[in-house]
Write a structure and sequence with these properties.
Elements: H1 2-27, H2 32-40, E1 51-57, H3 60-70, H4 77-86, H5 95-100, H6 105-113, E2 117-122, H7 132-152, E3 157-161, H8 168-181, E4 186-189, H9 204-213, E5 217-219, H10 244-258, H11 261-264, E6 270-272, H12 283-292, H13 304-311, E7 312-315, H14 322-332, E8 337-338, H15 348-356, H16 362-377
Parallel strand pairs: 1-2, 2-3, 3-4, 4-5, 5-6, 6-7, 7-8
Length: 385
C-alpha cells in the first residue's frame, strides 16, 4: 500500500511538472515551433469569415469545485493534468485568466487574428468528474452565463451547452432548456463519464433530447480512465493531447458507431475535434475488420465508415497542417469539416493563417471557415469578406 501511494505521488508530480512545462511553451507567446508552423502555411492574409468552433471558457464556480476536488488526497489522470492550470500559480502560463475572460483579452486576440466568432464551450473536464448534483448545478450555471455572454456579444460568440451525463434524465431536461429556452447552438460533452461511454443505453435519453432539439454533440477529449491510463503516463508521458486524448475520444466515437447509436438516431450529428481524432485514416480497415472478424457482423444497417461520413463532422482544432486538411477533405468531403483554434490552448494567429492560406478551392474553404458551422450550429450567415 505504501509503495502504491508513493508511486501515485511520483506520477502526479511528474505529470504536473510536465504539464506546466508544456503549457508554458504553448501559451507564453509564439514558440519557435509555432512560428515555423505558421510560416509553413504560407501567410495567406485575411480571406474568409472565421468561425472557430472549439474555444474554451470557464466560470469561477467550475474552477472552485475543481480546486476542492483536487485538494483531496487521491490522484487520477485528469486531476494530475488539470491542476496545472485550474489551480492558480504565479509561475503558470495565463490559461486560467484567458479561460475566465469573455470580453477583454479574448476579443482583442480575436480581432488581432482576424477571427470573427468563437463557439464557446466549458473547458474540459467540464462537470463530469463532480458528484451528480453539483455537476448538474454547474452545467446549468455555465449555460446561463454562456447565454448571457452571447446576448452581450451576438456577433462574436455562439455557444455549446454543458450537461451532466451522471443524471441522464436531468441531462435531457437541461439539453431541452439550453437549446430551446437559452437558444444555445449545440452541446458539449467531455467524452467518458466515470469510465463509461455514451453507447451504454442508460445514456440514450441524452441522444433522444439532442435529436429532438436538432442539436449536434461535440465530444471533447479527456484522459483515459483508470486502469488504462497507467500505460500513458510515468516514463512515456503520453497522457493528454500528445496522444492519449485522441486515443480516448476516437474509442468513444467507434463505440457509438458499432453500438448502433446511429441506427436508432439516424439524424444525430457528432463533432470530433483535432481532425477527427484519427478516425479519417481508418475507413477501409474499420469496414474490413468489422465485416470479416467482429462478432457484431451484420448488426449494423451500414458499414462503419458510412456512419463516419453521414453522422460526424470534424474540426481543425490543434491540427494546423495543410496536408492533413487536404486528406480529410478528400476522405470526408469539405461539407464535414469546420475551422477551430482550441483557444486558449493553441495560437489564434497561427490557426487563422493556416485557414486563410489553405490550398483548397475557395468554395471549399468558405464551407470549412464558416459555412458548415453556420449550418450545423444555426449561426446567422454574414456573407463572404
Amino acid at each position: 500500500m505504501e509503495g502504491r501511494q508513493e508511486m501515485e505521488m511520483n506520477r502526479r508530480e511528474f505529470l504536473e511538472g510536465s504539464s506546466k512545462l508544456a503549457l508554458a511553451g504553448l501559451i507564453a507567446g509564439k514558440t519557435a515551433g509555432a512560428g515555423k508552423a505558421a510560416a509553413q502555411t504560407g501567410g495567406g492574409g485575411r480571406k474568409y469569415r472565421l468561425i472557430a468552433t472549439e474555444e474554451a471558457f470557464t466560470i469561477p464556480e467550475q474552477a472552485d469545485e475543481f480546486r476542492r476536488v483536487a485538494a483531496l488526497a487521491y490522484s487520477n489522470p485528469d486531476l494530475d493534468m488539470w491542476r496545472s492550470f485550474l489551480v492558480p500559480d504565479a509561475a503558470a502560463p495565463p490559461l486560467l485568466r484567458r479561460l475566465h475572460d469573455l470580453e477583454g483579452e479574448r476579443i482583442e486576440i480575436m480581432d488581432r487574428s482576424g477571427v470573427d466568432m468563437h463557439v464557446l464551450s466549458l473547458t474540459s473536464p467540464g462537470v463530469q468528474m463532480f458528484d451528480p448534483d453539483m455537476a448538474t448545478s454547474l452545467a446549468e450555471t455555465a449555460n446561463d452565463r454562456l447565454a448571457e455572454a452571447i446576448r452581450k456579444h451576438p456577433d462574436r460568440f455562439a455557444g455549446l451547452a454543458s450537461f451532466a451525463p451522471q443524471y441522464p434524465k436531468r441531462a435531457a431536461k437541461e439539453i431541452d432548456r439550453a437549446i430551446n429556452k437559452l437558444k444555445l447552438n449545440g452541446l458539449i460533452v467531455n467524452s467518458h463519464t466515470n469510465g463509461e461511454y455514451l453507447d451504454d443505453r442508460k445514456y440514450w435519453p441524452i441522444f433522444e433530447a439532442a435529436a429532438a432539439a436538432k442539436a449536434a454533440i461535440y465530444i471533447h477529449p479527456r484522459n483515459m480512465p483508470d486502469p488504462c491510463s497507467f500505460m500513458l503516463d510515468a516514463d512515456v508521458n503520453l497522457a493528454g493531447a500528445i496522444w492519449g486524448f485522441q486515443m480516448e475520444t476516437g474509442l468513444h466515437a467507434m463505440r457509438l458507431i458499432v453500438g448502433g447509436v446511429f441506427d436508432q438516431f439516424p439524424d444525430l450529428k457528432i463533432v470530433l475535434g483535432h481532425m477527427g481524432e484519427a478516425l479519417p485514416y481508418w475507413p477501409y480497415r474499420m469496414d474490413y475488420m468489422y465485416k470479416s472478424y467482429t462478432r457484431g457482423q451484420g448488426k449494423l444497417k451500414k458499414m462503419p465508415s458510412r456512419y463516419l461520413k453521414d453522422n460526424f463532422l470534424i474540426t481543425t482544432s490543434g491540427m494546423n497542417t495543410h496536408a492533413v486538411l487536404k486528406y480529410c477533405a478528400e476522405v470526408l468531403g469539405p461539407d464535414n469539416i469546420m475551422f477551430a483554434i482550441d483557444y486558449p490552448y493553441q495560437e489564434s494567429e497561427e490557426s487563422a493563417d493556416f485557414m486563410n492560406s489553405a490550398p483548397l478551392p475557395p468554395a471549399d474553404c468558405e464551407k470549412i471557415a464558416h459555412g458548415n458551422a453556420e449550418k450545423l450550429f444555426k449561426i446567422p450567415a454574414k456573407g463572404k469578406l
